[in-house]
Amino acid sequence: MKKRKNGLHPAIWDMQSSLRKGNMNRRDFMRFATLLGASAATATIMSACGGDTAAPSGSEGASSTGSEATESGATGSIKRGGSWTSAMELQAIDHPARLSWTQGANIVRQVSEYLTETGADNITRPYLLERWEANDDVTEWTLYLKKGINFNNGQELQADDVMFTIGEWLNEDVGSSMLGLLSYLDGMQSVEKVDDYTIKFHLSAGNIGVPEHLFHYPGIILPRDFGGDFIKQPVGTGPFTLEEYAEGERARFKRREDYWRNGADGKSLPYLDELTYISIDRDASVAAIQGGQVDSLFQPRPSDWQALKDVPGLTVRPVSTAQCYVTRMRVDLEPWTDVRVRNALKMCHDREKILQLAYFGEGDLSIDAHVAPVHPAYCEQPIPKYDPEGAKALLAEAGYPDGLTVTLVTKNDEAEPAIAQALKEMAAPAGFDLQLDITEPGGYWERWADVDLGVTAWSHRPLGTMVLALGYIADEEGVPVPWNETRWVDEEFSTKLREAEATLDVEARRKIFCELETIMQERGPIGNAFWKKMWNITRSNFEGVQSHPTSYDLMTEVWRNDL
After folding, report:
1. 191: containing domain
2. pTM here?
3. Most CB within 10 Å of its CB: which of 149, 159, 253, 487?
4. Among 213, 240, 257, where does a domain finish?
């Protein structure tokens, strides 16, 4: 065991050495130094210094706020009051641990909060936590809660609330995707309440991503007496209270007067008095922001960006992401049980053309693995070429010399129809006859995990290990985790993923990711043409707005400059 210097995890000093040698970039250093418990301030100082820099006294653990800066400029210019209205689909919401879409998370996060926060810069910081500490092999994580934080019902946040919440995550009957993400916990016996403000995780295998996992959007911290329905019991530690929620219609929030965080002006946050979401269709959303009826819209489509990017009075904030549309195949259903058929369909992706047709070229080309260039351990590999003749030969080898007719299912609210139509045309020369079944979003999400071939929109995850654990492994009983829509489970892949999760050295982890990506390309269940660029489009009279790669609405420090 290495000796800790200045209270920092020994791997942080190794990473600083790699940074000095040019084997690691500053962004990756910041990311992993903070994950291992260094404060953002300490990590910033260390990343800027080439020498043997000590941590500033008292700097361990991150800042007392989630994001350390806004775009507001001088504190004297901040104005309080006013409202903000956004167009976003309002879905059914019950138990936050079951959240599966960002839209629902954007509702719940205004009232409730997370132990950590991964900001728009992809750096993870403590939020409800004061700090965390990891042991040398990252098999033990100690989480220290901030004191004096109250829920909006007046009850103080304590370890019992966190223990209850984790119990919900790990309860199979609840059906949370957190269960697969936290598979390194052997139930609640791996979670220890040390005292009223301290919790300790005892992992069955090392995992560097624990702080990131705690910001997965179903990871909202609940009061210990939560009854299972958030709309009926909207109790949280967050900056707003839920005043109204009508599914498919309207949601309204009011500023909380006793929120625990202060703004840059020294007074209690938030700055805005009221938030409103209205549920209207995508085309109506564009017209509404153009006409001034709404101030923002959720997750603009590329056609929305095209229509709004030059409109006076609107500010467009772009961000590169790990969001994507995967063509996914159920490997437990014919004909996708045969890897040759799966690979044949992957070879029918003309990626550059699909990106242009579906997304105006606003993204990054992808290999057929669910790991993006924005992920810190991404292993760059050649972009696969469009090869319909090779695909046709594979189909014949698999027993389909006369081609194959299959149904491709997806939804119609984003770029999926253009992708599906392009793939239909590109796959035809190979012998695939793709019958398209394109429905409203609800019609797809009701059956998304059941169809044998579909195009599924996946949101951003800051670590490659995180998304792979969510979608491409099984539990200890061999049952695919809740979000494993393809049912693909590969023993070698799972073993290497666990190895990557426990590997602290970034370059060593990247080598493992080269193997993981290769396995997915050679025998995996997905094709992926590109990684999406996303945009936050908001009226220019709002300041402090962030374009988050997961399309989160972080509204605590947003304010209006026109009051």
Report:
1. 94-213
2. 0.85
3. 253
4. 213
Looking at the domain assignment, is residue 15 inside a domain?
yes
CA distances from 554 to 88, 104, 108, 511 (A): 15, 14, 11, 35
Q: What is the DSSP letter of 113?
A: -
53 and 98 both lie in a single domain: no
Q: Which two tokens stand for residue 387?
A: 């090869």
Q: Which of 48, 10, 51, 54 is nearest to 29 (CA)?
A: 48
Give one word for 385, left, alpha or beta, with left for phi > 0 and alpha for psi -120 to 50: beta
pLDDT digits (tens, 9 = 90+) for 305-326: 999 999 999 999 999 999 999 9
Report how far residue 127's alpha carbon sits from residue 259's, in angstroms, rounded to the nearest whole number: 14
Question: Identity (one letter) of the amino acid at 432?
Answer: F
User: Facing residues of 319 across strands?
Assistant: 534
359: its two tokens: 């997304």
- Residue 423 amino acid letter: L
CATH code assigned at 127: 3.90.76.10
pLDDT tens digits for 158-195? 999 999 999 999 999 999 999 988 989 999 999 999 99
CATH number, domain at 346?
Answer: 3.10.105.10
Closest CA to 223 of 167, 169, 155, 172: 155
- Separation of alpha carbons 380 and 371, rounded Å: 10
> Are 325 and 384 within one domain?
yes
